[in-house]
Amino acid sequence: MNEVLLGLAIGFCGFAWTELREWLPYLARKLIGLAVRALPSDLQARMREELLAELNSVPGKLSPMIFAISVWIGYKQQALNLRLASRARSSDLIFVFLYGICAAPTLIAIAVVSVLLHRRVLTAEQFIGKSGVPFVVYSFPIGIQPQGLLQEIWHLTLTRTRFHRLPALYNLMSGDVSLKGPSAIPVTATYRRGRELSEPPSLGSIFHSPPASPISYRTLTTLGWAAHKLVNLVRNRIRRLARRSARRGGSSLK
Amino acid sequence: MRLSHAGLKVLRVFLDNPGGTIHGYELMAAAGVSSGTLYPLLMRLESVGWLSSSWEQSNPTEDGRPRRRQYRLTGTGQRAALERFQSIGLDLLGFAK
Predict the structure, then answer these.
(1) CA–CA distance, B22 with B25 (Å, rounded to integer)
(2) What angle do CA B8, A199, A176 make, to 5 degrees?
């Protein structure tokens, strides 16, 4: 009885495999049709025809199915990457809109002071963008060699708060940079290192990149130097207090 | 344009056949990359102008198979590919498939 059942099972498996092999080319063509749906509509017809022609060149019956599955996975992954990029772009635009509204008075005030102190509103600096294409980042002038106490204090205020990088919000709006991404590289440094980015650099790294011509604090006047020291002193004092309170909080918990 | 190892392998095949046209399956076999990697990559290379493509001039009824899409490396693509290979310091002849 068992031998009969075993024989029937083997026969059925053989029949099922033969049947499946006959169906595989048809299923592969169906899968190609599904895969191209992940592409932009203007490319779908062309890619369907191209891939079906290629499928015809693939020998065997199982290999076309493997070919089709691989194409399907590849296009699904590509569509997912595009969707993620579009989602990131939407969050960038929402951030620009909200932050732009909040920072508008500060932007106007800094622009006015920049004109009064440096006779210009913006300075330009080049960074490397996605796929190695350079883009311009505008920033408020901080003065290469600040002259006079006012310019020195202004320089310190802008560089400490990073407010001189606020116009980079425009780059976030235009899509040159994103909220999340790799570190920005100045153009000169990129060409030297031969590096390239696969996605837009992050806005944070633009804000934290040093100015193209950083001021040497040795050139500051006595008062400017004192202001610089005072800023450092206050900052370190705040950090020390924060650390101490954190330690106390930790010990009281014990 | 940033390229993966598969991208470099595909470009290498084109550089080995300067001016020649290659269709997808042939390219897949020559470069040793999967179809899921190859076709999205070909689309990217074509969109940046490194490759151009056209339908082959044949009669499907006479040939007994559908017409295939053929790819060719453009002048821009050739320059960019050579620059890329030089910048990463890979010898074109010695670069392993």
Answers:
(1) 9
(2) 130
Measure Cα distances from A72 to A33, A130, B2, B37, B86 in Å: 9, 27, 23, 10, 34
Is the C-alpha dihedral spanning A77, A80, A85, A91 positive or negative? negative
| ipTM associated with this complex | 0.83
Beta-carbon count within 10 A of A172 CB = 21
- A53, A68 Cβ separation under 8 angstroms: no
Global pTM value: 0.62
A214, two tokens: 């950083």
Dmax of chain B from CA atoms?
47
- Which residue does chain A place closest to B55, by CA atoms? A50
> Is B65 in CB contact (< 8 Å) with chain A?
yes
Cα–Cα distance measured from residue A65 to residue A98, given in angstroms and rounded to the nearest whole number: 50
Pairing state between β B51-55 and B69-73 = antiparallel
Residue A46 touches chain B, beta carbons under 8 Å: yes
pLDDT of A131 strictly over 50: yes
